[in-house]
Amino acid sequence: MRKSYVYLLTNKNNTVIYIGVTSNLLKRMYEHKAKIRKGFTYRYNCDKLVYYEEFSDINQAIAREKQLKSGNRKRKEALINKENPEWNDLSDGWLFYFD
What we know:
This is Excinuclease ABC subunit C. InterPro entries: GIY-YIG_endonuc, GIY-YIG_endonuc_sf, UPF0213_domain. Belongs to the UPF0213 family. Residues 2-78 form the GIY-YIG domain. A 3-stranded antiparallel beta sheet has the order 2-1-3, with helices on both faces. The longest helix has 13 residues, at 58-70. The protein has helices spanning 25-33, 40-43, 58-70, 73-83, and strands at 4-10, 17-22, 48-55. The N and C termini lie far apart (32 Å). It has 4 helices and 3 strands; from the N terminus they run ββααβαα. It has one domain (4-83): GIY-YIG endonuclease (3-Layer(aba) Sandwich). The chain has 99 residues and is of the alpha+beta class.
């Protein structure tokens, strides 16, 4: 079965938190960083990966995404702070090729 991911993005000032789900995290991060999709993350400049979880089933990932989205900002910040207290971009060092 294909892996799936729930991920949290923020902007350079850490003022916005976006939650998404994907089956290809590398490709999805490329799309965010290249500003390919003109939605929420484009508008608010969210392209810094600060947290992600891996799942073996897309349905589990979707359920977790809904759970995280239903929480308040304080709970999201606590989740990030536990795993990534410096709010570093976890996708730094990944290879992205922009046209």
